[in-house]
Structures are given as structure tokens and as C-alpha cells.
User: Fold LysR family transcriptional regulator from Ideonella livida.
Amino acid sequence: MRWQLDDLPVFLAVIEQGGVTAAARHLGWPKSTVSSAVTRLEQALGLRLLDRVSRRLRVTAEGEAFARQAQLIVEQAREADALMAGLGAAPAGRLAVALPPALTQERVAPRLAQFKARHPQVELDIVVTTHGESLLGKRVDLAVVVGQLDDSERVCRPLLSSPLLWVASPAWAQAHPPPAAGSAGPPEAELALLRAQVQLCETRYAQRRLPVHVRGEPATLDLSRGCSHVNDPLVVRRAVMAGAGVSVLPRHYCEAPLAEGRLVEVFPHITFELQAAQLSVVYPGRRLLSPRVRVFLEFLTECCAPEGPAAPAG
Assistant:
């Protein structure tokens, strides 16, 4: 490497400020010092990074490509400094995160006061969305997504995984009893019986060929039409508890209603192949983790830990 690390922030400042003079004023340095830093980079790389002929600053294609890499290097260097300096200090600063609506309401919101009490200097910006991966690197520092993301530029860490269940309200299950033991028909007939009771489902399961198993035998189910779709499992859960037929939900959103008798499991012999009930946290893999990111990852892990039985009254 022939270029100097200290010249990278200067080069980036010239681009951000729109010129050498403005960058020098912003940095509080002589114009000649800023100009020399850019010249050293160009000579070391053997490439022209900035076009100085036109009256307005123009970044060359090579300059744009180098600026993207320079930004990553500068961020890593700054975060390395911050990490080393912050090992013995309390995490601080603003952290933007994107979280799915159901996880936010069910697991995160009830524990936010605990996080604030532990880390009072961390300021959270929480974006509640089902499209967190699209905001990563633009508006947020990390995102929780459904499933896994295959992206070599990012770290994808599983947070929570549980099976999918068919559930209904007790009143619905009583009014629509399953066939008597020993009278179950072929898989197609059992799927037709189930399908007739599904009034709505979460959007991610609204597939034309949703893979399932009927008593261990592979089959598919069409939930793409003939029922309502909603992109929030808690809305599905509330509707089903109010009598809106049968629907599919991850177990981690059903545990309390099942234990309290507000939901019952139905069609237990129709199970799923897909791992759609997994939640993962995603963040840029090239960057060192700042203390505030690390403590929030620990907090998310706590939020997604299996919930033990309720403490006995008394």
C-alpha cells in the first residue's frame, strides 16, 4: 500500500464539501495542505481522482470507486478507536434500528425501559417496518428480518426460531370438530377441510404452493387466494382469537394465548417444511461493532430468549 491512511479523510472532505477550498475551510487547514493530500493519493494510486479542469469539482469514475472504499476504511478506523476507547466506558450515542412490528410490540417494547435503565446514554431510533433489510446502511445500523439473508457483505445472526402452528379460538374449534379418529380421508380431503376454515393468514404464507406435510406425507396448500392477507402476525392472532377461523402462526406468538386457553392448536398432523418462523438480526459485516451496537445485540438476544413459565402467584 503506497498511499497514506491519513489522506483518506481529507479526500473524502473534498468530495463532501464540493472543493479543495471548502474542505480546507471545513477542516481548518491551509488549502495547500488539502491539495497536497489529494495529489499524494493520486500519485500513489496512479489514477486521477478529481477533475480540476472544470470550474466545478468533478469526481472521476475512479475517484467514486476509491471514495466508497475509503469511506469503509475510515469508518473502520474510527470505530476501532471508539471500540478501544470505549471498552471501559459506557456505550453512548444514537443507534438506528429496524424491527418488525410483531417483535417490537410483543418482545421489545415491554423491555425498553430495562434497556434505558442499563444504558442511559444510548439514544434509540426504532423504525417499525417489515422491510428493514432495505434500510440497512441507509437509515439504520442494524435490522431484524424474517428468515436468513444470503449476503456476504453482511452478518446474519439467528435470533428466534419456532415451529408454525394451526390455531383457532376454542369456540371455533368446538363448532368445527375434526373427523373422528380412524375416519381421516386422503391428504387432499384433509387439506380441503383445513382450507375451508382459513379466513385470513399472514402475507408471507400467502403462497400458491405452500409446502406442508399431512401425517408425514408431502403436499402443498394454496393460501394465495380465497382468504384475507395481513402483514402482521399479531393482527392475525387477534382476529383468530375473536373467531376468524383457523390460521397459521409461529409458536412464539401463541405461547401465552395457548397457555391461557384463548387459542387452541388444531390440525396438528398438518405440519410445515419451511423455516419461515425464524427471525434474524442483520448488520454490516465489514464494520467493527461499536459498544452501543454490541449492547443492543445483547438486548435483542435477551428479548428473543425462550420465555419460562409464569411465576406462581402468592
Remarks:
- The longest helix spans residues 61-86.
- The longest strand covers residues 93-99.
- The chain has three domains: 7-86, 93-161+278-303, 164-272.
- The mean pLDDT is 86.
